[in-house]
């Protein structure tokens, strides 16, 4: 799990991209994922991410592990939707009725669970839609973090926040805080694993037992982890103070980021996706019926 929150050294096309383009593209991708309302559009967003992730890591197995959290969220939301949603999937301008009548010949939904609770196409579609959206969000952020050095990430954030300096906001201090936080994520994960192993060797069971027992077990992890985190923070502050670090001092930049042709390609792809989603969202494109029935936002 540590690899999902730390930089993975490599020399691929994705690693060489401008970190500013990565940050902006990641934010846009997440926004688009929560705007689109069709599974086919979700697939169009997801396929480039999967390709870039495989190019960057040369692995497929992590893609499956990244699905664990979205599936858990979807599993919980599925039962929440059963409890809260009581209506059938509606007719979208008369175009959905025929398609769903055909589907019902093969899949007898709604399925009555008793009382006023049903499993409907609407519940399944909304749940799968949320799972896909969360998966895209996690994969996009993981890809950005895995392929961007923390130093370049902080430099890119400072460049992107540059307009805020006109409002006299100390962006370099904000970026330094973010950089330190990102730098300590893998360190604290390693420390948590070390503490868990040490406590397990003393007989603490983190996996088995009742909820009350698990809470007590994790208390033996959380308290030492907090103590360690504060100790490391104090050591870092002392080291920075010893070296004369002044957050308000005027400083130059060692790294100058220059965009390349790779960044132009990614930018054009992202712009194309924005235009495509905007046309869909405003109903400018006449969609075929097989595309319309993949709608999951009702």
Automatic annotation (TrEMBL):
GO terms for cellular component: plasma membrane. It is a multi-pass membrane protein. It holds the Pfam family CbiQ. The chain crosses the membrane at residues 27-54, 66-85, 130-147, 167-189, 260-279. Keywords: Membrane, Transmembrane, Transmembrane helix. It is found in: Membrane. Signal peptide: none annotated. This is Energy-coupling factor transporter transmembrane protein EcfT. It comes from Mycoplasmopsis maculosa. The lineage of its organism: Bacteria, Bacillati, Mycoplasmatota, Mycoplasmoidales, Metamycoplasmataceae. The gene is ecfT.
